[in-house]
Amino acid sequence: MIKKPINLVFTAILVITMLAGCVTDEFVIELPEQNQTYLDEVPSTLRISYVNSAPNVVMLNGVDITENFQDDSGYFVAQGSDVDGLLNQGSNVLSVEPGKFGPKHTFFMDTEGPKISISEVEINGMTTIQGQLSDPSGVAEISINGVIVSIDDNDGFAGEVVTSDMYHLVAFDSDGRQSETFYSDRNSIVEDAIKVRVDETAIHDMLPIAQAAIADMDIDSLLQQSGNSTLFSEQVGIYLPKVVLVPKICTPKICTFGICTPQICTPEVSAGPVNIKLLGLEASLVDVDVEEVNINKLDIEAGNHWAFGDWEGVSFDGEIIDAHLGIKIESYVLGLTDIASSILNILGLSSLLDPMDGNFTVYTDVSRLRAAADVAISATDGAVDATIVSINAIGLGDLDSDFSIDITLPGVFNIFGLGLAQTMVDTITGGIEGAKNLIFDLIFGQLLPPLADVIVDSIVNEIRVNVAVGITNGAQLSTLFEVSDIDVTNDANSLVLYLNGRVGAEEADVSPGDVETGTDFGSPDVIWVSDHFMPDQIEIPENLGPAPEVAPTALGFRFTPGLIREVSNGDTEIALVAATNYINQGMLALYESGISIVKLPLIIGNNSIILASEGAATHRVVNYPSSPFELAFRGSVNKVPYLIINNFHIVTQEKTASGEWDQVKDAVFSAEIPISIDIEEGHLKLAFLTPTLSFEASNANNLLVQYILSTIVIEQINLGIAQIPLPLMTDVTYGGETLVIDPQGIDVSDSSGIGVTANTH
């Protein structure tokens, strides 16, 4: 059954070869010249001469590069630096009008050091690394973290080094050209994993969602987490009358024979009248129950304050409707003088002092609290902090209509008598009334930090959503972010957020087939797949859990040193950059989770192949990578992203009579696939271009396999991926409010990260 397609393929190749002999001299490829030796630098110019008109199609290694050419009076010319991202180390093919059997040239290049690929890693105290080097002119040396390791006759290498958080591999070819690759430990937190710019207009679009989220917030629990907030501290006392402790006593006057003895009196001993400061009162805001929050304005602002200095954040104008406030009153007996203690003892009141040490709650209702304030926003330890810089307006109405106070004193104060209870009520009422502005400050001081957190989460809801997902094999994939910095730019019209991130795969107690998800939108109440997972992810935990033992050990993720590119400052409302390091860490996590491992049970017989259950199958094909996929970039002017696949195994197994699986063949597939990425009408247009392939297998026609992989398979992948909408184009719904994020463009011009722009409505 397979002979006929093979014959057709080779017949087609023969026909193409015959037709190629009929090519005219309409086009001539002049530069680069066809050569048999390696060029040691990128060609400066690609030049094609023509007779009548410039060619419609020019391709380099199967990729259309016509748009890079300019017509120059009989010549079609392109700069080599514009297309160097598509050049291979080794053989390159430049073709003109391939559909019309135009001319083509093959030229060879070696401008870089050896390609380094990792095939096996073992960590047992020390780290043992095995891999392969490849270079057109031959390899000479490789070191890992400064340690020279051995190279065998097939350019394979193996070496043992001290386990580290970062591995630096440096290789040299026979002509002294150097290449280097970095790998970072799976546990690393990627700095500036995501950068996001959000314009003020986008924030306005997000206000309804932020407001809906605020309505569901437990402000009371947030207050309790932050501690009590003191409103006022006063002292109250009582008036004590004069109390005669020892009365005045006089000896009687006695006269004898006209001679009188003087009268002698002892002085009276008394205390009072006196005002005694008997109790101290401290009032703290401990309970806030809000019926409704309306945000009228939220603008990006920056300024300078005499106390805070330079600040960046937002200008807020809103109102709280029907706020029910609990104010804890703590009373404590002051240190009394001896006289005061004596008087209280004589009056029999000292026994009532101890019950006065304690606390009770009074309640205040505010029907409408309107406020306008400047709020400084910053990031600390992964959390967004909001601080009131200045209060620009406050509206409480009058005390009778908008501000009511309900005070119920414990009975001990009434029993004490002597006006103490009324003094307490007057002091508490006056203190709360005098602290109205402070109450506002405290309410909004507690409300604004979570408000800022909600706004941040709304802005980056498709990015800063901490997610844990269970995989069917029992692994758990987690994506975590923390806000590392916040900036105000563009004349206070844009907010820029810097997010550190880590994505990783961990062992998890998830039953096969039981796939669940848990998300964290900034609330402490987060439900994850399993309880051992971190419940509140404002800050990324220091350590990642152990990797599931479903894939071979990896060295880490491919790491690109240097600063991450800045976000686009164009005319869209939202722009973000996803760091290449973070994308590669994600590929490592997918690899460790075992998602790429596919087992295909088959029944093979009678010239047919049938999908079957594991029990009924006679054969099985197991596909798995032995190292993570990687994203890399090539090119100096026009960067081209590449998907690098190293050592992808296609294993054929046969079931024995005892039901065991025996390996029949292990084919190893590697590729460097250039990727074309674009956005059209909100959809991601992604295409794998013609790859550089290597395929190692016994009893296989490698040429035919490479032909099939590079044409039929890649075309099918392109067709399928073209139908996938970009995840960022999502209707975000919360509390009945909807926000649409509409992608506008994608930018791969910088190897440090991929940029995306979007608008909101």
Structural class: alpha+beta
> Ends: how far apart?
56 Å
Give the number of helices. Answer: 11
Q: Biggest sheet, open or closed, and with what strands and sense?
A: 9 strands, antiparallel
* Percent of residues in helices: 10-25%
Average pLDDT number = 78
Inertia-based shape: elongated
Portion in beta strands? over 45%
State Rg.
Answer: 39 Å
Structure overview:
The chain has 761 residues and is an alpha+beta fold. Among the domains are: 3-109, Immunoglobulins (Immunoglobulin-like), CATH 2.60.40.10; 115-184, Sandwich (Immunoglobulin-like), CATH 2.60.40.10; 217-250 and 263-458, no CATH class. The protein is 18% helix and 48% strand. It contains eleven helices and 47 strands. The chain has a nine-stranded antiparallel β-sheet. Strands 37, 38, 39, 40, 41, 42, 43 and 44 form an eight-stranded antiparallel β-sheet that branches. Strands 19, 26, 27, 28, 29 and 30 form a six-stranded antiparallel β-sheet that branches. Helix 3 (200-215) packs across helix 9 (436-459). Mean pLDDT is 78; it is low at 1-23, 397-401, 459-463, 512-536 and 720-729.
